[in-house]
Structures are given as C-alpha cells and as structure tokens.
Design goal:
- The protein folds into four domains: about 140 residues, Trypsin-like serine proteases (Thrombin, subunit H, Beta Barrel), CATH 2.40.10; about 210 residues, no CATH class; about 110 residues, Dna Ligase, domain 1 (2-Layer Sandwich); about 160 residues, no CATH class.
- It has a six-stranded antiparallel barrel. A six-stranded antiparallel barrel has the order 11-12-13-16-15-14.
- The chain is elongated.
- Helix content is about 20%, strand content about 40%.
- The chain has about 650 residues and is of the alpha+beta class.
- It contains 13 helices and 33 strands.
Length: about 650
Amino acid sequence: MSHNMRSRFPSASTQAACGAALIVAVLLTIPAVDGARADTHEGHFVSVEELKRGDRCVGRTVFIGTEVEEFELLILGVVRGVAPGTDLIIGRAEGALLESTGILEGMSGSPVYKDGRLIGAIASTWQFSKEPIAGITPIGEMLPALELMDAEGHAGGRPGLDGLPGLAMLPEGERAASSLARICDMAGMLDRRTDTHPVPPAVAFGDRRLSPIAAPLVVSGADPDYIHRASRVLGPGVTPLLGSGIAPGSAARTDIEPGSAAIAGSSSGAGWEAGALEPGSAVGVQFVRGDANWTAIGTVTHLDGDRLVAFGHPLFNAGAIDMPMVAVYVHAVMPLQSMSFKYASGGELLGTIKEDRNRAVAGVVGPGPPMVPLTVDIRTNGGERRFEFETVSNRPYTALFSGLAFGGAVSSAVKASGPVMVDLSVRVDTGEELVEYRDVFHTTEPAMRCSGELSLLLSFLAENAFEERELQGVELDVVVREGDFRTAISRVDADRKVYRPGDDVKLRVFMRPRRGDPFERELCLRIPEAIAPGALTVRVGDAMSFHLWERDRLGTGAAPRSYEQLLNLIRDAKPGNIVVAQLLSDSPGLSLSGDEMRGIPGRAGLAMASSATSGAVDSSMFSVLREREFAVRGQVEGFYEMTVYVEE
C-alpha cells in the first residue's frame, strides 16, 4: 500500500483494535455453549478452545494464476454455539490487497493457520464491510464431511432440493401458457415446488447478517443478460458471472490416477507455471462442461491423502453428490464496493466432489463422476448451430443445469427478447425407455422459456413418485422463427344444427393469424350409430384449452396412478400449434385406475360410474364420442363451444 493511502486511514493495528472492540461487544451478548466438538487431531489442528483474541495467524489463497500466497490474519474473537454444535471464529485479514478489496468471493475455504497448525477456513463475511473481516469455519466442523464421504452406502445423486426450479425459469407472464407446467400440476408436483434454492445459513448480529461467501459461478457459452436472469433460480450461494470456459494452457484430462495431485498449469505464455494441489489452491465444482462451462470457484482447505475438504460452507447443502472437481486459474482480483471477487476459469478435471454439507464440501482426487450428455441443434433465420454439453448426473441438479445450459445456448444463437415462435422437440433417454416430447409456443424471452421447459420435463421424469429413473442423455432440436406467428380461432360454424345417428358434423374453423391472411379449415366429427336422441356438445380450441377442459372433464381420473400413465401425459400432450375438436355426450364417462374407458354405451357407463366405490373408478362429466385435430403454422389461441342435436 502506498504511503499516501496509508496516511488517509488508521494503521492496521488501530483498525484491528477498533474492529475487535465492536465485534467483541456483540459477541459478549451470546452465551457460550458447551458440548461435543469434532475431533481436531491434536498436533495438526487448532481447536477453538485454544484460540484467543489477538492471536496472529497466516492464511493461504490464490490471488493470481495458480500460485498459493500467504496473508496475515488477526483473531478478533470466537463465538461459541452460533448454532447447535457450531462455533464461529472471527478474524481480520491484513495486507495491502485485502485491505483494499475486502474478503473476496472465491476465498471460501482459504485455510488459516496458527503456528503451522490449521484453525479452519475463511467462509463468511459481512457485505459492504469497511474492513476485511471474515467468519472462519473451525476445521473440526469440516472434517466430518470426509467421514460422510467414506460412509458405507454413499451413492451420490440424491440432493435435497425440493420442487421444480424450472418453474422459476419460465418468464412470469408465460407460466400459465406452459404445457409442461400444466402436466406437472396434473401429476401433483406443483404442490411441493419451490421457486429458488434454500438460502444458505447465516448468523444474524442485530440488523446485520454474516453470510457465507458466495462462490463465483463462472459461466461461458451464454449471453450476459441471460446469466443475470438465470441467477434468480440459483440462490445466494453462488454469483454467476460471464467468463472463459477453460483456464489458459489447460485441456480437459480424464486420465488422472487416484492420489495424483497435478493441477492445471498455465503454459499459455502468460508466465504461470504448473503448481501442486495444496491447501490454499483454487478449486472448482463444475456443473456443465463442453460448449458451455458452469463452474463454482472456491479454495482447498485441507488434504488427507487423495481426499480434501474445501469452501467452509455448502454450495447447495445437497448432501451426497457426484460432481466434477476441476483445477482453477485465477485471471484477476476484481475489487468492488459491494463484494470483490476472483475472476477465474475452470480447467483440468481433478476428481469428484462427493459431499456438499453444511460446513464444507469434500471430494477425492482421481476419476471424474458420470455425466449426462446433452446435444442441442438450433435452427434460426440465420442458419443452424450445434452445441454439445455434459451436465451433472445428480437429481435435481441435472434438470436445473441442463435447463440453464440449454437456455444459454439459445441465448447465444437467438435474439434476447421480442416475439419468436419456438418449435421444440426433446428426446430423453432414461435408461429404460426413450421419452419424446414436442411443443410449439410463442415467447418474448426465448432463452428463459426454453431453459424452463427443459428443466420442467427432466424434473417431471426424474422426480416422479412411481419409479426410479436416471437420465442417461438428452437430445434437443429447436427451430426458432422471429416474429409473432400466433393464430386466433375467430369463429367455428357447423353445417347444420340437427343430425341423425351416423351423420357427419361438418365444421368450418376460421383462423386469423397475426401475420398473413385469414384462412379456414374443415373438420368432420361422425355421430355414432348407436346414440340416443338428444343434445351433443362440440368443442374446438387450442392445445392449452383442450388440456384444461380435459382436466376439468376427467376430474380425479386425470391424475396418473402409475409411471406408464405419467408418461402418457407427455405422449398425449398437444403442441401449441394444434387445433383440437371434440364431440361430447353429457352421459358420464369413467376412468379405471387412471385410464379413461372410451366407447362404453351411455347407460353402461352411467351404471359403472354410479357403482364406483373406490379410487380405482372415477367418473367424468362427459363422454368423448369423437376427436379430431389439425396443425397450423404458429401457436393457436382461442376456444369455441356449440350445441348440436340428434333426432331419430
């Protein structure tokens, strides 16, 4: 720090004393809590009982490239029992850089030592703090993550995020128009949804909050505006920012043997040499790789052979996971008024992160985890582009990050806003079957709408309540046409009002597109021969109207009762460019164990529906006699209903 800068501020010791006095005054209001603490392996680690105010310590982290640097840190106090079995160490970092920037995003996990023995990891801070004051997670509270990683039955892939993050990705004004949102509702999945990830734990001091340091989530392969919009579904644990997908001079490696600790070098001509993976090294958790990369940046706290703990706080508090652990190259430190951060890139594969716990993440150096391949073909007015990714194979994060990666690809190939028509086809390999889904929809936010639609579909398949399914691969074909191609149903006419059994009800459907000239289509709905005289209902409408009236018509019979019926909701979904016409009788219909029984004579259906005494038989309001449909160029809007009569 320059002499001029030092002259404008109190000395480090004076600032430390003032900061300590303020913090200790608050700490004294919190009672000490006795109880069992994690084993701190005396001789290697420092327990919180050994620490006192004024202890001088040394921290380790990476500020540039891959080289670990040291900085000094003064202990200001220890808060005992901030939560059950949880203590908090408060320290003030020193040194020209950190006194200028404050505690950095990306420092999560930076180890702190006293006399060469490990105290814990920098993990939290106060936003807008005038001094580089950090909360330090005691190492004794991080080590249990290693034990959990070794526990018998560790399977990974069962994080605890409840709900449908894809719903929050959909543009708010378009959620009601999403067929997949309706399908999830019919399956009962919206009853347990959450729009965002849980807020990481924080310790309140009066009206101030000590929060875990957000991990910089470096994203490549996406438009900056899209990254900003997508941040709302990720929660405060990570801060997305635009960056490079790979560290200088590094290339993806999958041949690292267990126990190896080679970290990505930087033989890019920038002068950075390869370093060894050690406490203080930058490390990343990678959610997406390939033509896009989404990597959360943190710091290694402690290595135990080929195993390590890092971050000092959770990413999502997901529990047992299997996510790629990658080397990180720090390009620069970015000082901000709110929260400074390390600008970095993920590089070589180092191994697997296997635990995401309340006080640490833990992983093992060696082979990477299985991933889910995702291919995207996008056709626009300007040509065709292909993207290839791999996303984490962890529920529900496969759905979350597959949707985010897909939306990022769309944001790179399509205009950010304004009306477009999207024709989306998806093929999902679950390992047991190939599930195909198609929809055509109008949107003004194509990237967010596409990301939400894919995330909802994958959540629907992976989070179903009937059978376990692991997603094996996803293929997407997307056609995007700029402009408003919506088409309204302006009128429906029948050739007459009165018919006889066996006659055709000939319908003329008049269509008015937003672009182009009006046109009409014809449909015929044949009246059954064995039909009693009386009134029949004709309904003509867009796909969404059709699905809504079918849900109302079937009542409880619309809810799936098996995995196969769940898949039928996807298979039977009508794309948004479809016009559906139905001929209905007011005789009640019925569903047996969720399968509608069509074609049963009215009186027989009435008798069966009346005798229904259990959930296996559900009556419906009308019986479907005939159903026809046709497709138009763009998304259809509108609904029309009329009554016709049958005479002998």
